[in-house]
Design goal:
two-stranded antiparallel ribbon; alpha+beta
């Protein structure tokens, strides 16, 4: 599966959940997307749920903005950088982010970054349409 395919599939899963939550306020929707609730009520949203694992070891992990609006990617490559194909990067150059430099390609490594999983951040960027929040992710 390419990243693009994962992105589209994930966005569709998000949208399907949102169609069930139209009776909830924005704040209640955010609460619904807390890891503990999602594991219980939306087991297919993330493959880690079945293993009772989190993508980041943090308290109050919230899954609403999984993928991160600051991520930029292009499966075909964005530009050549030092002889390697840059495939993704962080638009805010988060200090918690890193790069994975392979033989031919460079990828953004978000494994140490918790920015999109904090509820204060989600409140700031909240929209009910996940694809709208993420619209810049795929435009590079
Ligand atoms: S490093 Fe953090 S802020 Fe940047 S794209 Fe990755 S998760 Fe988002």
């Amino acid at each position: 599966m390419t990243y693009r395919e994962w992105f589209e599939t994930h966005g569709q899963k998000h949208a399907a959940i949102m169609t069930k939550l139209t009776h909830l306020s924005d704040e209640e929707v955010i609460v619904y997307f807390r890891y503990e609730n999602m594991v219980q009520h939306e087991p297919d949203f993330c493959p880690l749920y079945a293993q009772n694992k989190k993508c980041h070891d943090m308290e109050n992990l919230n899954c609403y903005l999984c993928a991160c609006p600051n991520f930029r990617f292009n499966d075909a490559g964005i530009e050549q950088k030092e002889g390697k194909l840059l495939k993704s990067f962080c638009a805010i150059d988060s200090k918690e982010g890193a790069q994975f430099v392979g033989e031919d390609a460079i990828h953004q490594n978000c494994s140490g970054c918790t920015v999109p999983h904090h509820e204060a951040y989600i409140r700031k960027h909240f929209k009910r349409d996940w694809f709208d929040i993420m619209k810049k992710v795929t435009t590079v």
